[in-house]
Specification:
alpha/beta, 11 helices
Amino acid sequence: MNGGRIDKDHWLITKPVAHRGLWGGTALENSLTAYERAARAGYPFEIDLYLSTDGVLYCFHDKTLDRMTGEKGNIFDKDSAYIDGLRLIGSDERIPRFTEVLELAEGRVPLLIELKDHTAPDFVEKAVNLLKNYKGEFAVQTFNPKYLIKVKKLAPEFIRGILATDDAKEESLINQYILKHMSLNFIAKPDFISYRYHALPLKMRKAKGMPTLGWTVTSQEDATRLKSLGINIIFENFIPE
């Protein structure tokens, strides 16, 4: 076994993960079209979760709506009727509900699910409850070690990972330190690490033998370098060889 519960043949180690789906051209990031393209190509894909004010989970990366919809405000401050009425900018694509994405991926490809920082106290519980009834392969990851601790408590059987980076300039100094050094791993007990790829490989005292993914890789050159180090990738803007 590698990393405790993840063996050497696990998809988190062997299969490159499409960041926000396999997007580009007419397929927009975090859209059902991008997810379908990834599934058809056989790539696991990464998604990001937020919760509406009335308790519906959506797959959307940004906290704010403006870049991807042209509207104002935070997605987690809107209800589902409002969110369902939005379209991804320049398209007829809706913001996908998490339930739609689970249905699309189940039995086809694994999901790497990021829990975004949120204001709702029951955010993690709602995500976990949906996933407990899901029959497909998945893993959960987050930058927030408190969320990982909660996942561990609610669903210890879930494969869970910590997201980290050496570049978190918008965070407080203490959060920068925690994100860089993964200082709360001894409590959160992740099964794997997703780290900003520029800083890889990690020193052994940080990695501690856990499987590591590099995010977000945008070239074959970097993919090849990381593969030579035994590091899987989360990728976008190219198709890995």
